Amino acid sequence: MMLRAIDHVQIAIPPGGEETARPFYRDLLGLTEVAKPEPLASRGGCWFEAGAIKVHLGVEQDFRANTKAHVAFLVDDVAGITARAVAAGYTIKPDDELGDVERVFIYDPFGNRLEFLKPLATASEGEESSASPFPLEGGRAGDGGGGASTRAVRHQRPAEATARARRLRSQMTLGEKALWAELRKSDLRFRRQAPIGRYIVDFVSHKACLVVEVDGPQHETPEAQAYDAERTAFLNSAGYSVVRFPEKLVREQPGQVFRAIHAETPPPPSPTLPPSRGKGDARYDVR
User: Fold this and answer.
1) Other CB atoms within 10 A of residue 105 CB
2) Superfamily of domain 9-153
C-alpha cells in the first residue's frame, strides 16, 4: 500500500455550531461551503473546499476543543490573515520558535487551534497587490477577496528580506546595540531587525505581540513621521503594539528603556480556552 495524499481534514464542532462556524471558515479563511453527501447530511456539520483543500466540520456530542492537535495551512501572507482574525475578534497566538517559517496560531470560534504558516524559503514575490487569489488569504475563494487590512501590502523575496535584515544587523546604532544587550535577557524572546509584512522592524517579540522602534533624528521630519504613522498602522492591524524611543535616550539609558518596555507594555494574558481531551477520555465518530 502506498499513501498518495490527504483527502481531507476533519475538525470537531459542538452540536448546532454550523452557523457559528461559517463566518470563520467561509468568510475569514475564504473556503467555499459544499453540500454534504445525502447519507451524511442528517448528522449535522458542514464541509468546505478550496481547490485541493478540504475541511470537514463534524458534530461531536461531547465536544472538547482541540487546543494541541491541529491542522496547519500554508498561506501567502501570515500578517494579513492575522490582521483579519484580530479585526474579527478571534484569538491569535503568534509564534517564532521555528526560525525558517513565519507562523501564527488562530483559534476558531469553538477554541480549536489552527496553524497558518509561510516557509521563508517560499515567500511571495515582490509585487504590490490589493488582493490575493489564495483561498486562505482573504475573501471567498475566487472572488479576489482581501479586506482593507491587506490592501497594498508589498511582500519581499526571502533572499532580499534576509539580506536586508542581515545588513541592518551589521549596521546597528550604538543605541540599538545597547538596547539589544538588554532585550536579549528578556523572557519575551525579542528578535532584532525582523521582517513583518513589507517592513523590517528594529525589535519584535512575537510572544508579546510587541514591536520596539528606535528613532534617530531622521525620524523628526514630516515625511518620516508620516511614513512611521503608516508603518505603525500596518503593524497594529497585524496585531502588534508599537512603542518608540529616541535613539539618544536608548543610547544613554538602555536599562531605563528596557524597564519601561516591560512596565508599560506587559505581554497579553494567555487566552482562556476549553480543556483539551485527556488521554483517558472516550473518542467519538464525528463524520
Assistant:
1) 19
2) 2,3-Dihydroxybiphenyl 1,2-Dioxygenase, domain 1 (3.10.180.10)
Domain ranges of the chain: 9-153, 158-264
Q: What does the block give as the cell for 17?
A: 455550531
d(CA 211, CA 274) in angstroms, rounded, equals 30
| Alpha carbon distance 136, 29 (integer Å) | 5
From residue 165, give the alpha-carbon distance in Å to each of 21, 85, 172, 200, 202.
39, 27, 11, 7, 10
Q: Write out the three cell numbers for 103.
A: 507562523
The tens digit of pLDDT for each residue in 42-64 reads 999 999 999 899 999 999 999 99
| Range in 83-87, 140-144, 196-200, 279-283 with the lowest mean pLDDT | 140-144
Q: Give dist(CA 149, CA 234) in Å, integer.
A: 8
Q: Structure pTM?
A: 0.51
Contacts of residue 272, defined as CB under 8 A and 6 or more positions apart, other chains included, come to: none
Amino acid identity at 237: S
pLDDT tens-place string over residues 84-114? 888 888 998 888 777 678 888 999 999 999 9
Buried-exposed string 110-146: b where 16+ CB fall within 10 A, e elsewhere: bbbbbbbbbebeebbeeeebeebbbbbbbbbbeeebb
Three-class SS of residue 87? helix
Greatest mean pLDDT among 106-115, 164-173, 181-190, 266-275 lies in: 106-115
* pLDDT, tens digit (0-9, with 9 covering 90-100), for 130-151: 334 345 543 333 333 333 333 3
110, amino acid identity: F
Domain 158-264 architecture: 3-Layer(aba) Sandwich (3.40)
